Amino acid sequence: MTYEEIVSNTSSPTLVLAGPGAGKTYLLADRVKRLLEAGVDKNTMRVLAFGKDAVQEMFARLVETKGFGLPIEALPPIATINSLGFEIVAGQARRFGLRKADLKVQEDEDVKCLLFRDATLSICLPIAAATEARNCKQVGECAEDPEEPKCRVCRKYWDIMAKCNRVDFDDQVLFACRALEEDSSLLAEYRAQCRHLLVDEYQDINAAQFRLLALLAEKSVNGLFVVGDDAQSIYGFRGATPKYILEFRENYPAAKCPPLAHSRRCHEGTMSDAVRVLSTFYKEWTGPFPLEYHTEPGEEPSLWQMPSGIAEAKMVARIARRFLSEKMTVLILVPKKDFFPVLSRRLRDAHVPHDCPVNLLSPSSNGRLEAAESLLRWVREPKDSFLARVAIEECLNRGAAKVPGAAKGGSCKPETIANRENVEAEVGRLWEAVDRSTDLLTSLRAAAGKSAALSKVLSVLDALLDAFKEEAEDSGTSARVLAQEAGIWPSPDSMSDDLTEVMSLVNSAQPTGPRHAQLMTMRKAKGLEADVVIMVGLEDDIMPGSKCDDVAEAARLFYVSMTRAKQKLFLLHSFSRPRNISFGEDLTHKRRSRFLDAIGRKSEYIDHD
Question: N or C: which end of the chain has fewer CB within 10 A?
């Protein structure tokens, strides 16, 4: 199919296979413009993107003069799939025991984990059921069975969430599907708004999102127009899978699935190597397709082996400094965030301006300061039950109210673990008394007289509240309570270490300049691009990793990372790697990633800084 045939097709469902830099955002925006010009009512059209950034990009493309220059009032609704789900749920809040007023999304993953544990222990199920329930709900394949333990956990979890008038990220879509399936008039109303349903990043949907899209498109499948690339499906941890692209014709038998066979970002040298990796390890791939390149020819990616992780970091700094000075953009990609400290240090040493997405404190200092922050956030809003829940957990983990056994590892005695789980179950049962007029702290006060552990927790929390009152007589009380009662700094040395470390980072000379390099994990780099991309840590026990259970997805992640590069791509691996970063048994003579082997060229050994 030609571009004109693709963008204007309304005679069948359409899946456009659009690889990296193919121009999919332009395609979707162009289709919106053409539908509006053809007289399609904007209120019968929905545009759905995967993330908020993609929504903003689509909006900008449609309204900016350098894009299509459409007036804002002419645009159809543009949103994420989950925000559409929230819209449906909010309108049907009572159906789920919720209130439309002040209904919000609970997005804190730590809170979510605690609530699943509370739900599980409060109904006397083994803690493993919490993980099973959370994973099942995140994947989105919910077939409720009242006798199934994980389903019982989810029901209890939803009960806790309803008490606080909250839904989580996944519930937005799960509840929306349930509402539509149970209410035919509601379904008809939303189907009328989705006669033309445009969906971006189709490879990123999970089972629940597929279910929602299928419900909305069922009566107007010829208006279904989705764009995706199974080669870029990298979110398996949340249930995203290439199968919804691979099975598109099975789900929509009349569908047309043309490729958008253009490369407007990568030159042929980069794409050829990326294709070799993917073709070797992802056999079901719908591609590759012969591409029309809209870029200048470039050099093939550089494969370099460095003597050590430190030498690798120094080379990264050298490359970044050189190309930033040439007014090029630089993206540094790592398999995991453990690489950030050494890279950031060497970039600072080389006076290379850069953004690092995580703080660089040591794990011990970071843990103490995060605990202090959690307690201080709760002190400001003591009636917030979710903040209170985190504060209770911090009290159980340290200080005067500490209950040993939180890690539940092999070094803990069975009786220690049993006692900890009993206390955790007591905390879980606190939710029974929570309702619109009773918050978690109030429930804790009522239960504290019956439990020594809960009584100690309450004592610490009350001490914090008293210490931080505006009219507190002794300004040093708050610090003393945090340090001693809450156990944030059990010794002067620990407080000194944290303050010294924070100040050293604050006072360290962060290089400045008109351009800066971006440090990013590979999984966070999707949607980005740069003139120069540097990928590090490419040993086999790190990428894909010795414990990787989906090498095909790891290969897709590698492909996505490679195809961020517009001009130059550097692929670095090391002869040696310290234990805190390496997953394998060997710390020297590290085998390079099998993905580099698939490229078919030897690595050049670089033995100088």
Answer: C
Listing from the earlier edge strand, what are the strands of the sheet with 259-260? 78-80, 45-49, 196-199, 224-228, 14-18, 259-260
Coil/strand/helix, residue 574: strand
The answer to whether 573 and 539 have CB atoms below 8 angstroms apart is yes
Give the C-alpha separation, 96 to 167, whole Å. 10
Q: Which residues pair with 539 in a beta bridge?
A: 592
Q: How far is the C-alpha of 530 from the C-alpha of 328, rounded, in Å? A: 8
Burial class (CB in 10 A: 0-12, 13-18, 19+), 95: middle
Q: Quote the longest CA-to-CA distance of the chain.
A: 77
pLDDT tens digits along 382-436: 999 999 999 999 999 998 999 998 887 767 888 998 999 999 999 999 999 999 8
> What sign results for the dihedral spanned by CA atoms 500, 505, 506, 510?
positive
The rounded distance, in Å, linking the Cα atoms of 58 and 45 is 14
pLDDT for 330-357, tens place per residue? 999 999 999 999 999 999 999 999 998 8
216 within 8 A of 189, measured Cβ to Cβ:
no
Q: How buried is 98 (Cβ within 10 angstroms: 0-12 exposed, 13-18 middle, 19+ buried)?
A: buried
Label each residue of 260-285 as H, E or C: ECEECCCCHHHHHHHHHHHHHHCCCC
Q: Give helix 109-122 / helix 128-139 axis angle, nearest 10°.
A: 130
Task: Name the 3-class secondary structure at 320.
Answer: helix
Q: Token pair for residue 171? A: 């519930």
The H or E element spanning position 456 is helix 452-467
**pLDDT higher than 90, residue 513:** no
In the numeric block, the tokens 């099998």 are attached to 594
Using a cut of 0.85, tell me whether the model's pTM lies above it. Answer: yes
pLDDT band (50, 70, 90) for residue 131? very high
Give the residue, 167 or 142, on which the prediction is more confident.
167
Cα 289 to the center of its chain, rounded Å: 30
